[in-house]
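Show me a record, fold above all:
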Amino acid sequence: MNYEEEKKRYIGFCGSYCRTCDWFTGKIRSTFQSALDMVEEYGFRKWLEGEVDIENMKKSLRILANAQIDSGCKADIAENPEDDRCKIRQCCYQKGFDLCSECSDFPCDLLKSNPGVIKFHCIENLMEIKEKGKEYWINKQLRRHCKNL
């Protein structure tokens, strides 16, 4: 295991782990594809007709089923901060850090108030990485989430 490569590619600046993200794994794409397949196979006209534009709904499902699989937080860095949807990523990148926990302001208000950071316990992840090291944390994540790697 190349821990430096794993850290640089799959641990988000905020402490999220890309390998568990539904966009990264393709789970979101396959879920929308399944929904589209069901709508096309069964129609659901009895419930949907008059309530929604069925063709528009199928178009939307098709778009989401074919959405690009996320390549990971660190691969999505935008050089122009105004073009980046993630303010945490831009802040960390602009300061030259690999992880937010390297910053003297950690944990800052930007992290503490972010719904995704809260939901995925990212501050706790970063604290554990800081305390026990990235190799320990990555191995723990791989054991917990990535049995097939």
Summary: The chain has two domains: 3-24+74-145, 27-65.
